[in-house]
Design goal:
Chain lengths: ~200, ~260
């Protein structure tokens, strides 16, 4: 099993790598298009701003290779937002792998960023999360994707938003499975080991 | 519902976990890694590692333990203490830290906040504030270099103004350490925290004073903070995490239950 973590030059690459290693795999952090295309599983992590991350992907000439991926690909946090068509954060066009929009969260007088553990409600067609409970997962973000037909899990903070989205082989999680305790661990294991 | 966070803080000196009373007389608690793993297993929502030697000594401290911690635990953690440059921050994040907490260096060079936010994103940048209630003036004052008693001193800032300033500069979270309460276990400074909460638009974490379960209940209910940080009550097993979380849940506070099968 060849697992690559796309080197977006964002801050949480290492914690994603360690989480995969704890499951007994040896992932490679790379920005090499050929290695990414040849992998069995691709993880697109990201923290920071959408504009900066898209600039990095552009400079590394990774936008077209990522769009062409057919193997299971998991976007985490900003990585999920990059999978959408557009982000309001920096008004930037994203990868357009999942036809959705990333917008600033509307939370009333609640603090932003939305930071901490919140309940995630998985849809019946969610391949990575158990649907029986609404497990707590760890979030840190100020922008989010609205709930729509591509949503496979939701979360509430001021408003309901998409905690996970999917379009074919592309799956996004707004929370951080690598920092979500045993729930996140089980989710990453399913992503790596299940038929998707 | 977004859960209130329980955050054990591990004060680190020379690679060991220590704890002092009102920032003084540090006593040894134990090795970092087993303590970190233990706290993650028993249901801590997040951990803070505060290198209390770093800021005041002005030396570069060995931080290789950050990577060892990141390899082992699967909850978020923050590294605090002596982070003065972007390069240093980048190194810690690349070792697997989730957040950086800046205290005295931000007071010396407030632009550091903006630079870190631009470089790493708002979610990585926590500002730690040591706030001292001056009974003579009746004001809350921000102190710096509190890790070393001989260098600890008042800054030019009043706490409320500094909170506004760091939020304006993009800070993603604030840890307000109420110095008068630190280590004495008489309860959080609910009054001050509630006052700061009213104009704090980012997550606010209470620090200093936890001594009993009802202190956590009070600070969540009366000051509406997002998380409560504590050290000695956990290190000395004065409060068991399971009892704390169970009681908070019974009080109707949103808490992430301890995962089944770990105890």
């Amino acid at each position: 099993m060849k697992i690559v973590i796309v080197d977006t030059e964002c801050a949480n690459l290492t914690s994603v790598k360690f989480a995969i290693e704890r499951l007994g795999y040896q992932p490679e952090i790379t920005d090499d298009a050929a290695a990414i295309s040849a992998a069995d599983r691709v993880i697109l992590p990201g923290v920071g701003t959408a504009a900066a991350a898209m600039r990095n992907l552009q400079r590394k000439q990774l936008i077209e290779p990522i769009k062409a991926l057919t193997q299971p690909t998991l976007g985490i946090c900003l990585g999920m937002q990059l999978m959408t068509a557009h982000s309001e954060e920096g008004d930037v066009a994203c990868l357009g792998l999942i036809p959705a929009q990333t917008k600033r969260m509307q939370v009333g007088d609640r603090p932003l960023p939305h930071m901490g553990w919140n309940n995630v409600r998985a849809s019946n067609n969610n391949p990575l999360l158990e649907t029986a409970t609404d497990p707590y997962c760890y979030f840190v973000h100020s922008y989010a994707v609205a709930k729509d037909d591509f949503t496979i899990a939701t979360c509430e903070y001021g408003d309901t938003f998409a905690a996970m989205i999917r379009n074919g082989n592309f799956i996004g999680a707004q929370f951080h499975p690598e920092r979500s305790g045993s729930i996140g661990r089980a989710m990453l294991k399913r992503f790596l080991e299940n038929e998707l | 519902m977004l859960a209130k966070r329980i955050i054990p803080c591990l004060d680190v000196r020379d690679g060991q976990v220590v704890k002092g009373v009102q920032f003084r007389n540090h006593e040894l608690i134990g090795d970092i890694l087993p303590l970190a793993k233990r706290y993650a297993e028993i249901g801590a929502d997040e951990l803070v590692f505060y290198d209390i030697t770093a800021s005041s000594d002005g030396r570069t401290v060995d931080k290789s333990w950050v990577e060892r911690v990141a390899r082992e635990i699967d909850i978020p953690f923050t590294v605090a203490g002596g982070i003065r440059t972007l390069a240093h921050g980048r190194e810690l994040l690349s070792m697997g830290a989730d957040k950086l907490s800046i205290n005295s260096p931000a007071l010396m060079n407030p632009d550091l906040i903006n630079e870190m936010v631009d470089e790493f994103g708002q979610q990585c940048v926590v500002i730690g504030i040591d706030s001292f209630y001056n009974a003579d003036s009746g004001e809350y004052e921000v102190h710096q270099f509190t890790g070393d008693e001989s260098k600890s001193r008042r800054s030019q800032w009043q706490t409320k103004d500094w909170v506004n300033e760091v939020i304006r500069r993009g800070a993603g979270e604030i840890v307000l350490n109420c110095m008068n309460q630190d280590g004495v276990r008489n309860g959080y400074d609910v009054e001050q925290l509630a006052a700061i909460r009213r104009h704090c638009s980012v997550p606010l974490i209470a620090s200093g004073g936890a001594g009993a379960i009802e202190h956590f209940t009070q600070v969540f209910k009366q000051a509406d903070v997002d998380g409560a940080l504590a050290a000695s009550v956990f290190h000395k097993s004065i409060i068991a995490m399971a009892d704390l979380k169970q009681q908070l849940i019974e009080e109707g506070i949103a808490i992430r239950p301890i995962e089944q099968g770990v105890l």
